[in-house]
Design goal:
With 69 residues, the protein is mostly helical. 64% of the residues lie in helices and 0% in strands.
Protein backbone atom coordinates (compact mmCIF):
# COMPACT_ATOMS: atom_id res chain seq x y z
CA UNK A 1 0.00 0.00 0.00
CA UNK A 2 2.99 2.28 -0.32
CA UNK A 3 1.38 3.95 -3.34
CA UNK A 4 -1.70 4.91 -1.34
CA UNK A 5 -0.22 8.21 -0.19
CA UNK A 6 0.73 9.22 -3.72
CA UNK A 7 -2.72 8.39 -5.09
CA UNK A 8 -4.51 10.05 -2.15
CA UNK A 9 -2.50 13.25 -2.47
CA UNK A 10 -3.02 13.29 -6.25
CA UNK A 11 -6.78 13.35 -5.53
CA UNK A 12 -6.32 16.22 -3.07
CA UNK A 13 -7.48 14.25 -0.05
CA UNK A 14 -6.05 14.36 3.45
CA UNK A 15 -5.69 11.22 5.51
CA UNK A 16 -8.66 12.42 7.56
CA UNK A 17 -10.79 12.98 4.43
CA UNK A 18 -10.11 9.44 3.28
CA UNK A 19 -10.62 7.99 6.75
CA UNK A 20 -14.02 9.64 7.12
CA UNK A 21 -15.10 8.55 3.65
CA UNK A 22 -14.48 4.87 4.40
CA UNK A 23 -15.30 4.98 8.13
CA UNK A 24 -11.89 4.22 9.62
CA UNK A 25 -9.54 6.23 11.80
CA UNK A 26 -6.91 8.60 10.42
CA UNK A 27 -4.36 6.46 12.23
CA UNK A 28 -5.47 3.43 10.20
CA UNK A 29 -4.87 5.32 6.94
CA UNK A 30 -1.45 6.45 8.21
CA UNK A 31 -0.50 2.84 9.02
CA UNK A 32 -1.60 1.68 5.57
CA UNK A 33 0.54 4.35 3.93
CA UNK A 34 3.72 3.29 5.71
CA UNK A 35 3.07 -0.43 5.37
CA UNK A 36 2.41 -1.15 9.05
CA UNK A 37 -1.07 -2.50 8.32
CA UNK A 38 -3.42 -3.29 5.44
CA UNK A 39 -7.07 -2.33 5.03
CA UNK A 40 -9.70 -4.99 5.51
CA UNK A 41 -10.80 -6.58 2.26
CA UNK A 42 -14.30 -5.14 2.64
CA UNK A 43 -12.84 -1.59 2.58
CA UNK A 44 -10.98 -2.05 -0.71
CA UNK A 45 -13.94 -1.41 -3.04
CA UNK A 46 -14.76 1.85 -1.21
CA UNK A 47 -11.12 2.86 -1.19
CA UNK A 48 -10.65 2.33 -4.90
CA UNK A 49 -13.93 4.05 -5.73
CA UNK A 50 -12.98 7.16 -3.76
CA UNK A 51 -9.44 7.24 -5.12
CA UNK A 52 -10.40 6.42 -8.70
CA UNK A 53 -7.93 3.58 -9.00
CA UNK A 54 -7.83 -0.19 -9.01
CA UNK A 55 -6.83 -2.54 -6.24
CA UNK A 56 -3.82 -3.47 -8.38
CA UNK A 57 -2.80 0.20 -8.48
CA UNK A 58 -2.67 0.28 -4.68
CA UNK A 59 -0.61 -2.88 -4.35
CA UNK A 60 1.75 -2.39 -7.29
CA UNK A 61 5.33 -2.10 -6.07
CA UNK A 62 7.34 1.10 -6.40
CA UNK A 63 9.56 -0.35 -9.12
CA UNK A 64 6.56 -0.90 -11.40
CA UNK A 65 5.15 2.49 -10.42
CA UNK A 66 8.33 4.24 -11.54
CA UNK A 67 8.09 2.69 -14.99
CA UNK A 68 4.55 4.09 -15.39
CA UNK A 69 5.62 7.74 -15.03
Amino acid sequence: MLRLKMIREKRGLSQMDLARAIDVSQQAVAKWEVGEALPRADKLPQLTSILGCTIDDLFRDNENAASER
